[in-house]
Amino acid sequence: MANKLTIMQTVEGMLKLTEQGKPSTLIGIGPMSSNLLQATFELARDLDFPPMFIASRNQVDLDELGGGYVNGWDQFRFSADIKAAADAVGYTGDYYLCRDHGGPWQRDGERNAHIPEEEAMELARKSYKADLEAGFDLLMIDPTKDPFEIGKVIPLDVVLRRTVDLIQWCEDERKALGLPPVGYEVGTEETNGGLTTTDKYQVFIEQLKVELGERGLPMPTFIVGQTGTLVRLTEQVGTYDFDNAIALGKMAASYGVGLKEHNCDYLDDITMLLHQPAGVTASNVAPQFGTEETRALLRLAELEQTLVARGFIKAEDASNLHDVLLDHAIRTERWRKWMVGDDTKLTVEQIFADQEKALVILDIAGHYTFNEPEVKAEVAKNAENLAACHVDAQRYACNCVKRSIQQFVEGYNMVGVTSRIKEVLGA
Fold this sequence. Notes:
By secondary structure, this protein is an alpha/beta fold. The protein has helices at about 5-20, 35-45, 75-90, 110, 115-135, 155-175, 200-215, 240-255, 270-280, 285-310, 320-330, 350, 355-365, 375-385, 395-410, 415-425, and strands at about 25-30, 50-55, 95-100, 140, 185, 220-225, 230, 235, 260, 280-285.
């Protein structure tokens, strides 16, 4: 993309705008589906903001490392499909490919297998190399998912050592490949190793600055800080700590770094608007958009049944979208991370036997199944049946996701932010 601002330049512009009393908050979007990509690029085209697409290793990774559950993407297919989605809607502005939670043990299988640290680090390096080759703009270095320290606070010196070692490796590899600079995101929202207090946050930044400086490595673009956000089920159950957000934002900015939040799904409007006076530079939202699309598909399935009852669609021709989505959502077991209490330990059989609980799981985990062949077939069948009744199912699903994203774009004061960034940078 000609004249594309790097993620580092964009954050530099964001920090300058904040200093001038014109703050905004960038949004990191979990790329759950092709509908989400279309919705995002249509909004970015019309509202003038640069999207960040954040992908965890479970979502997007090399096939040899287990692949990704989102659209079957590895890093290269992810990059190509995002470009194609931008081209399809005529979006010619900047966007950023971002590795979310890269690092050792960040794939569920690696962590569950309790593989040794050096093996986990080697797999992380292999994944980062593909990120670099595929043109990622931002790499999150998160070495805090340690299967040998479950429930414990990982010592800060261990987090620092792994973080600096991985940045060093990525920088050496990037230069060896002849690739342009990339940004780095460090820290984590997790309590075991997360930066949960301002004191710990400052100690981490200061020590990181010293370690990176001694090796001639760049400061990160973002440092993740805990502002109280927490997602469980399909709700924001955290209590936003406005004072802590202000303190973390000012502290990060004093080092020329942006404060990044995670787990910002399902925020209310007031909390979104508080991001401007708090000076939060970026905020990640992912499962909410997948849930919105799941709910749209379920409404389309309900619409189809209504048309069957009215004789517009033959019963034998109707899709089985609801039941297929339900079955696959429960069997993914990816809902466990969003559940609370003893519900995290429920078996698949127990879920199937409890209709109320099953519908909760469907709401949480439907989006994890979008790439399943059987689900894709039922979505297509539903769309075909509705098209015969003059309903554009794909457009409807896309618009539902679009409305959800737009709420954040407006709440975070992102409308027109690309132009403001370029103006303040003189770009």
